[in-house]
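Hi all, long-time lurker, first post. I run a small reading group and we've been trying to get comfortable going from sequence to structure in the token notation. Rather than ask abstract questions, I figured I'd post a concrete chain and ask someone more experienced to write out its structure so we can walk through it together at our next meeting. Sequence below, copied exactly:
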Amino acid sequence: MAKPTGFMDYKRVENGNVPPLERITNFKEFHPKLDEKARREQAARCMNCGVPMCQSAIKLAGMVTGCPLHNYIPEWNDALYNGQFDMAAWRLLKTSSFPEFTGRVCPALCEKACNCGSPVVGDGPVTVHDNELFIIEKAFETGYMKPEIPKNRSGKKVAVIGAGPAGLACADWLNRRGHNVTVFEREDKAGGLLMYGIPNMKLDKKIVDRRIELMKAEGVEFIFNADVGRSYAASHILQDFDAVALCCGAKKARALTAPGVDAKGVMFAVDFLKAVTKSVIATSGVLENIGIAPANKQIDQMLVQDFGIEVEGKDVIIVGGGDTGNDCCGSAIRLGCKSVTQIEMMPCPPVERAANNPWPQWPKTLKVDYGAEESIAKFGHDPRVYETTVKEVISENGHITAVKTIEVEFQTIDGKRQLVERAGTEKTLPCDLLLVAAGFVGCEEYTAQAFGTELGPRGTVASKGDETPELASPNGYATSVPKIFTAGDMHRGQSLVVWAIAEGRECARQIDSFLLN
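-- Answer (accepted) --
Happy to help. Here is the structure in token form:
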């Protein structure tokens, strides 16, 4: 145990936040870190419970709490409290491939299961998420994180298709086992959604590049602009490699079905976020050297010039109230939109836990994420409108000018839960840019088809194991095609970064066993 009385001696203190009206002037990360003394005090709050649910990934009421990677959380909290930073990093890296990513973007399933967050203790869970980030960044700062090149090579070659979190985790694990790993990525940079799906203010792209350079130094080969199944033949990969891991994500976005959605100015959220990030990267020198406001202006200009996307001074509406919608909200505000509205068909969650949602279940409560917080600060209101959907897209000369919305509710009709419109609730809202962040319906089929793998009912690559995986399993990653495996969102469907990493690691273990038997 870090400190027997730590959970009583110290209150929970999270990393800070740059004030909303200040942080929206740039695309930089906005969570200032606690100093070393304060961070060690936060680690002291860990009780090293007899049954540490934080690392157990328990499924309760259809949702998981606890870490999917089964991180040794009490162990590295103890090391952190005692100032044993290398030991903390060593224990953390035993189970977690990329703590610098999950320490920034994971919703901290571990904290939801922490005993310090129970009603009995009541002072809030241990800051596991922030502690993890401190440990890994300290490891990079001190030089503990350096290339570790395998001393022996197996002679086996593995191709990983897709350089998102699952593909990177799979490649990293297999390389450490001594196999020769080549990652094929259709974009110009590695990272998948880490690079082009998550905005820079949540995950600075230099952090992704830093990890990729480390992996290259350790022997992992990357081939970019390789769109396997289109510009790059799957047959060549099958001929040249002993095993293949398909880790292409689940990027097939759910489309709107309302009339008029083919108007100009209607686009998927993932395409918008990718364009914004490319513009941020291209103007990184401006961001660092000439000040804040001019840099955002440069990004706006590049979006118009290179992608035909106009945000500054425009009315923006986002369909979807989840994390992607929130990221669109924060991005649009930084780009100077006139207004932003998030439309969500689900009811507004309760502020407090419902009686049927007790701890340690995942808390199904209302949270005000950074994008909503920034909208409140800039425009004076929460951007989210619940129990509402788009009924029609209105356009002039082919470009969107407004959307017609209507309130909806779920009703049970003939034993089935159905979405029903509320009569007389139609509204017309001005809209210059409509971003669809309504989730995903599976992977893009062409890569799977190029390798002859089958798709399951969720639009993802089917494995010989559990076709609807809830937890990463070492038995569920081989497909029906010999030597072809699959992991991450391409296997389980749209999910969290931490689940993609967990699946990538478990898939790698199965490939390793296949290669050595």
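A couple of things your group might point at:
The chain has 20 helices and 16 strands.
The first strand starts at residue 58 and ends at 60.
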